Amino acid sequence: MSEYVYPVNENDPEAWGYDERVLDMFRAVRPGGIADWHLGSSFRLLKAGDTIWVYAGVPYSRIVARGVAVDGPRWSEAHACWRIYIQWDTQTTRQLLSASTPPEVLSSSPRTVRTLDSAETDRIQDWLDAVRAPRPQILPKSRMRRLQQVLDRQGQPAFRAELMKAYHGRCAISGCDVSDVLQAAHIDPVASGGRDHVSNGLLLRADLHNLFDKTLIWVDGRNRVRVDPRLKNSEYAEFDGVLLRQPSGSASRPDKEALRRHRERSLSSS
User: For residue 197, how many other CB atoms are within 10 A of its CB?
Assistant: First the structure.
């Protein structure tokens, strides 16, 4: 896995994008906290498992936090930018924030997201060892997969809000209008490059979302719901052949090619 440095500047609100001051923001990070971050430089080489060291520029000129990328960069239509999920390493971050003398570990102040060279990585680790900081946490692959599944299932708030509006607060399959059980389902998964655009989503009841993700429910070429034969004796058999509800606006309707790809995944796993 690679290591990157991500610069933030407290005195540039457009680049920073938060109301909090930089150090206060990281002091408030809870164990296991995950942030949905904007990649201002459109840096797209990051991938799940990569380490991200946050460098606070003006007025601090120091590394203030460490995180691990949970997914790869993805395009957010709602925000019109590239974004990435980061899980914070709270132990290392607190050690960095509590340091009385910030370590000068970088060869040059970063102006954009960039990789760390081996000398910079060694200097960071030497400093952490000198202050007896715990070794940085490494997320096992199984943990990252679970995090990705949870994040995909929940969907971004803006993405879900767009789907709620497009589908008038009703499940695209069942018609359920109980907001608390409606979720934003991606047709092309985020992990495979799927976008947070309403045309790549369906508003689904939580249980139907789960079956859709497991490819036990899909949509045929005539926009009718199909249920895997393994569910023929279950309560979900009633949805077989149901016409998929569609938003009135053409730009918001499910992408036919994305539905085809999902259908092919479903049929290949049957």
Answer: 20
Q: What is the pLDDT of residues 151-173, one digit of tens each?
A: 555 556 778 888 999 999 999 99
Residue 200 and residue 186 in contact, taking contact as beta carbons nearer than 8 Å: yes
Whether residue 198 contacts residue 163, with contact meaning beta carbons closer than 8 Å, is answered with yes
Q: 141-154 vs 206-213: helix axis angle to the nearest 10?
A: 130
pTM to 2 decimals? 0.56
- Mind spelling out the 3-state secondary structure of 111-140? CCCEECCHHHHHHHHHHHHHCCCCCCCCCC
pLDDT for 167:
95
Domain boundaries, the chain: 3-140, 155-269
Which H/E stretch holds residue 154? helix 141-154
Rounded CA separation 217/228 (Å): 6
Rounded CA gap, 262 and 98, in Å? 48
* Amino acid at residue number 85: Y
- Give the length of the chain: 270
Q: How far is CA 53 from CA 197, 244, 254, in A?
A: 29, 45, 38
Q: How far apart are the first and last CA of the chain?
A: 35
Residue with tokens 């199984």: 142
Output b/e per residue, 235-267; b: 16+ Cβ within 10 A. Answer: ebeebeebebbebeeeebbbbeebbebbbeebe
**Which single residue is written with the structure tokens 């938003």?**
247
Structural class in CATH, domain 3-140: alpha beta
